[in-house]
Amino acid sequence: MITHRGMIIHNVKLMQRRYRATTRTILVSWLPQYHDMGLIGGLITCLVSGGSTILFSPTTFIKNPLLWLETTVKRFIELTEPFGLSQEVMAPGYGLAENCVWEVCCGYANVHTADVEIKIIKPNIGKEHGDSTKEGEIWISSLSAGAGYWGMEELSMKTFENELLTEPAKKYIRIGDLGRIIDGKLFITGRIKDLIIVAGRNIYSTNVEKTVEKTSDLLRPGCCAVIGILDEVLMSKGISFPKGSDQLGLVVVTEAYKPLPYEVIERICTRVAEEHSISIASIETIKSRSIS
After folding, report:
1. Predicted confidence (pLDDT) per residue in 211-242, tens digit
2. In the chain, which segments carry CATH 3.40.50.12780?
3. Sequence-ordered strand ranges (E) for 56-209
4. I want to staple 139 with a disulfide (CB 3.0 to 4.6 A). Which of 30, 41, 97, 172 is the partner?
5. Domain 199-287 belongs in CATH node 3.30.300.30
6. What is the pTM of this model?
7. Which SUPFAM superfamilies does this one have (predicted)?
8. Any idea what the Cα angle at residue 192 is, between residues 237 and 168, rounded to 5°?
9. Cα within 13 Å of Cα(55), Cβ side
10. Is the pLDDT higher at 265 or at 238?
């Protein structure tokens, strides 16, 4: 739940200040206005600054995502530099709906924003990392923080009402992202929910998925999921699992253009074992475009 008093106004002022928005500002966005970033970042901030907003239909983007994504920042600058576009206009940001929209610009954490504080916390312990360069859960304290989730008191308490023993009066948002702060810059490294604990080790499903996908051209890119399945479920299906796997077996579900030969399945298992030192209990293939 986001209110106009304090939360939205505070967030808009942060973006105005960080992006140096003025009456000369021109913003282009494909995000719909019922999306928090489309409304607050793409429309309200520019209107408050007196600038201009150019909007195009989200369906145009969906039909051809490369229209927006194919040009990297570096290439974009190279193409527009002859027309006087400065590198200083490029300002990638990081934000979340629980904090209205905006949180970090250009990667810098806790810079020129005394009313926004980012901490790296030891997951499931609730204590701040003594060394913020080590990976941990990202906690955020800000006046832009939402009031909670509508009709979800328990989840709201868990997300918005967190405190550190060293700062009992300050509230922090737990957003579920993992990261670290290096040289004053915030690096997002993953999601807590994407962690799979196998034999006491933290396994990032996204890393294993990338390994699987690059093993064979028969696999459809971006359509692989690695999940942890309880041993009792695997056993009921007649699937064996590695001993000492913390009651979990690693299962790969992936789209394939055609049935995978045995040697490809073997290659996937070998690659995953070599790169991540874990075993796969089962590989399940589904038809191409079953997921998306």
Report:
1. 999 999 989 888 888 888 777 676 776 666 55
2. 4-56+92-186
3. 93-95, 102-105, 116-121, 136-142, 162-164, 167-182, 185-191, 195-198, 201-204
4. 172
5. yes
6. 0.61
7. Acetyl-CoA synthetase-like
8. 140
9. 16
10. 265
CA distances from 49 to 7, 37, 211, 245 (A): 17, 16, 46, 56
Cα–Cα distances in angstroms (integers) from residue 228 to residues 3, 34, 72, 249, in the given order: 39, 35, 35, 6
Identify the CATH homologous superfamily for domain 4-56+92-186: ANL, N-terminal domain (3.40.50.12780)
What is the C-alpha to C-alpha distance for residues 212 and 216, in angstroms, rounded to an integer? 8
Instruction: Yes or no: say if 220 and 258 are a contact pair by the CB < 8 Å rule.
Output: no
Task: Please identify which residue in the block is written with the tokens 């003025």.
Answer: 22
Joined tokens for residue 235:
């056993």
* Element spanning 29, H or E: strand 26-29
Question: What contacts 20, CB < 8 A, 6 or more positions away?
Answer: none
Amino acid at site 156: S
